[in-house]
Amino acid sequence: MAVRYQITGGTAAEISASVESGVRSGALPPDSALPPVRALAAALAVSPATVARAYQELRQRGLVATAGRHGTRVRPRPPVATRRAARYPTPGPGVRDLSRGQPDLRLLPPLGPHLARLADRIGPPTGYAPAGVLPELAEAARERLTADGVPVDGLTVTGGALDGIERLLAAHLRPGDPVAVEDPGWANLLDLVAALGLRPVAVPVDDDGPTEAGVRDALALGARALIVTSRAQNPTGAAVSADRAGALRALLAGRPDVLLVEDDHAAELARLPLHPLAGATPSWAFVRSVSKPYGPDLRLALLTGDETTVARVAGRMSVGPGWVSTLLQRLVLALWTDPATTELVTRAEESYQRRRAALIAALAGHGLTAHGRSGINVWLPVPDETSAVTALRDAGWAVAPGGLFRIGAPPAVRLTISPLDDAEIPALADAVAHALRPARPAGFTA
Q1: Could you tell me how many helices (H) and strands (E) the chain has, helices first?
Q2: Predicted TM-score of the model (pTM)
């Protein structure tokens, strides 16, 4: 077999359950290769059709992916709870971790003082009936979105950007529907699309966002939804430019069959201006998270869109969790209205811009072209991801392999600059250059 873990079972359901158990326990870690259908069928004394059905079920549930000659492999983030160490191995001692993609914890606003002030004026306990979107939060959100040129027809809040996107896709689409996604794109979103049983249609990305040709091709292939990152695209740092926004709006005009979803997860941390596509299709939604500027533990995102789309999301919230905690909403509102927090977010934005530009320039000094117009990541094309990641780890730097974010895009690595100090940038650029162009071994001498 292609893996050490012994898959068992005599039926398709038993075989798929055995694979899932291996994924859950960590015995089948991400990217593990599963045995070929015929090989596993012979080992288990079942028909190839039985194994094929098991693999099909696993694919439909987003646990595995099949990629031609590369065979069937466990997805990088399968939608089952796994042992944390199996999913996110900790870099060894002395290795600087630039692989996580999270904001600089040193630049996040302290929540304690705001929580203390809220405790003094929170009032009596709240029951079920009054819960929902706080009017004062809704008013502030409308002002902020309108200032960025986003129309606010309807408004609700969800438990983060991915929660909002999941509810949008579940409300509009059915398993098997094609969804246009950025390539390279947000790894969590690619895994969500797989977990929902949707079919991803790759849209190439350049520095100005999803390409016009890529979106046109995706629409021709019948994409029922298009998901676009407005700014600080993960992993490339792309940001939709004014010209690109105009071209995409023209492509989407008159497409009532397409759900347009925009993800502005960086929000106040994005230095570049917003060029929204909102309203380009009759069914649309714009999602803005508060996690990047104010803290990953603040699981709240604003979601605006056409009346029907917002009503569907709000309705699904009402029959599920009901609402996002009003305590959390009050905390977000307190952060929005605090001048010291606004100043800190501005400093964070400037810091990310400075470090990102410095790393890109340092890599350019070695003849390497990296990308990162906005956000906290730098995307660097490489000849071979495995050798680049391994060489950098041996040199003391942990980076994310591009395979986590790609469908058909060329190989690359992602470097998150948020943990990086300014003084470390030259050494990192030197290490990257050496990893991609290792010294040639000395030849024989007489």
Answers
A1: 16, 15
A2: 0.85
